[in-house]
Amino acid sequence: MALPYLQELVISTLLVVSLCMYIKFWRLRNPLYPMDWPVVGMLPSIVANLHNFHDVLTVFLATNGCNFKARGPVASGMRFFVTAEPANVRHIFTSNHANYPKGEDFAEIFDIISGTLFTIDGEAVRQQRAMFQNIFSNPRLLALMASCCRDKVVNGLLPFLTRMGSTRTTFDMQDLITRLVFDLTATPIFGVDPGCLSISMPSIHVATAMDTFMEVGLFRHTIPACFWKVMRRLNIGPERKLAMAQTVMHAFIREMTEKSKARCTDILDDVLAMDIISANPSVGRDDVLLRNVLIAHMIAGRDTVGTTLPWVFYNLARNPRVVSCIRKELAPIASLKATALASNSISSMVVFDPKETEHLVYLQAALLESLRLYPPGPIERKVVLADDVLPSGHQLCSGETILISIYAMGRMESLWGKDCHVYRPERWLSEDGAKLRYVPSNKFMAFNTGPRMCLGKDIAIAQMKTIVAAVVWNFDMEVLEGQSIEPKLSCILQLKNGLMMMVKQRE
């Protein structure tokens, strides 16, 4: 009877020894690479580091020349090339962009917005971009967006912060910004204010559903497609959660569209939904495509500005010197408003219009510096159509997936200097501080680059300037000590635990 147990012991010992030797020799040959296991590839290494995935990826890239190859489990077809090298980015996104589409897998992962600018490739992209370029240049729509932003700051954001400041109550800045930006995004699209930033602070189930969409999107990225498709068919795990979120988002679009139709025609003519239908009647005739387009724009508007601003306020609260520089830049504008405010018995708050903040370079540098360190979309994904050689000399084969770590690019010493991890807006300014320094978009990809450059970049920056200027001028900010500041496991760089802060109104 002892013989079988002895055999099991010997076999187990051999397996353990073999495993240890494999790990040892792998580490000797590849000391700074993620572990490439037999059969399962690098999937265990990825899963083990998901809690700090972006920082681990940054270290791998920094110590391996900004590029490395990875693979998934055997027979999964998962072959990756990961890069943070600007020359490669220029080649992939501009010089030879036709060879690097988002691909069918990307469209399947984000199927809830299929057929939209964010999932399509080729000629369809050019047509939709041309349509939206015309829409976003509409002066009436831009005026509506600016007016909506100012109204929400005056009647929603500043009163809330005043209440919190007067009682010295802590609050979640990320939740507050999510509500603000959700209203800012939805109102110009539908001509109806969802009222998420009202005094009652209602539950915003649709915003939670949008978060779920991005979280499950990351899950789909990290496992073989056959796994999540089986889970979707069986309606289990994250796929069940996503199906429920999809129902919530569809119901929200239906409700808001019905409210829009109930409004008078002259108002509807100014909102984004009607501009989309007017510019492309085929979209208006396809209810599913129109719904997907509207969801995509809700996500794009909310997730860029809404994800960036909490990180901006986090950085500012920890860097009072930067806050002082922004206030110094705002002071001449604020002084011109002093007389008008003195005669206003309702509020002494100063609010800055987009035209007033348009040329404020230090304020913009502070925003760009936050975007460098905390880009709302930390990773871009492309697929290789035909075999190619990158400027770095790496050979790519048809079918390989390319991951561009925008997060890592913003933290590369070779690109930004030895203080690359330091929040320092001055790196964006000319020596005299009078103007912004030119930084190529293939080095700073927060707004993408090449033919897919973000169409709403100027709108997003204008909104952020308006919001940040009002908060910084009127309040002192403090980040609550002891909280865990880390990104959520998602396709966007939200804070996992929110951002607890306190404010105090300035005299």
TrEMBL record:
InterPro entries given in the database record:
Cyt_P450, Cyt_P450_CS, Cyt_P450_E_grp-I, Cyt_P450_sf
Give the GO terms filed under biological process for this record.
lipid metabolic process
* Residues at which heme binds: C454
Keywords in alphabetical order, please.
Heme, Iron, Metal-binding, Monooxygenase, Oxidoreductase
Q: Which molecular function terms from Gene Ontology are attached? A: heme binding; iron ion binding; monooxygenase activity; oxidoreductase activity, acting on paired donors, with incorporation or reduction of molecular oxygen
Which coenzymes or cofactors are required? heme
Q: Which PANTHER family match?
A: CYTOCHROME P450 (PTHR24296)
User: What family does the Swiss-Prot or TrEMBL record give for this protein?
Assistant: Belongs to the cytochrome P450 family.
Record protein name field: Cytochrome P450
Tell me which species this is from: Setaria italica (Foxtail millet)
Mind giving the lineage of the organism this protein is from? Eukaryota, Viridiplantae, Streptophyta, Embryophyta, Tracheophyta
